[in-house]
Amino acid sequence: MRAAAAPSLTRAALVTELTETVRDSARESNYRFVGPVEVALSVDPRFGVGDLAVDASIVASPEGLAGALVMPDGRRVQLGEDPVTIGRLPDCTIALSDSQVSRRHAMVHRAEKGFAVVDLGSLNGTTVNGVGVQEQTLTDGDVIGVGETAIRYEES
Question: On the CB side of 139, how many CA atoms lie within 13 Å of its CA?
Answer without folding.
Answer: 8
